[in-house]
Design brief:
Blueprint: H1 12-25, H2 38-45, H3 49-61, E1 65-68, E2 72-75, H4 81-105, H5 110-122
Antiparallel strand pairs: 1-2
């Protein structure tokens, strides 16, 4: 259900986070669906269990997952407004980081980027 690519420059935890969020967004994982245990998912993906636990904990803090003691980790019924806002902000930060990094590789400065963004906004 989830996948990560160890050869990707994107950190494993970020890949797993996106993979879980995508499964929820596409309906592959529905509300109240139980996720694999930390250990099981770590074995399935051949990653460190601490990485999986870190992703589950972050998704729980974001209001996307909930842990039921003695039962497991589940997709929340309805993502909280804070979860939606946190997800949008995280995605925007990642987009900006990639954009600025790619632009820097092409020799553009931050002031040049800001100038062009302002020009685009006016259009």
């Amino acid at each position: 259900m989830f996948s990560v690519d160890p050869r990707s420059p994107t950190p494993i935890y970020a890949q797993l986070d996106r993979s879980i969020r995508a499964a929820i967004a596409t309906g592959e994982l529905r509300a109240n669906a139980q996720l694999p245990t930390v250990r099981q998912l770590a074995v399935d993906l051949a990653v460190n269990a601490n990485t999986v636990a870190r992703v589950y904990a972050q998704l729980e803090r974001d209001g996307i997952l909930e842990t039921r003691r003695g039962v497991g980790t589940f997709v929340r019924d309805v993502p909280t407004p804070q979860a939606a806002r946190a997800h949008r902000e995280r995605e925007l930060r990642a987009l900006i980081k990639r954009f600025v990094g790619d632009a820097a590789l092409l020799g553009f400065t931050l002031p040049e980027l800001i100038h062009q963004l302002r020009n685009e906004e006016k259009k």
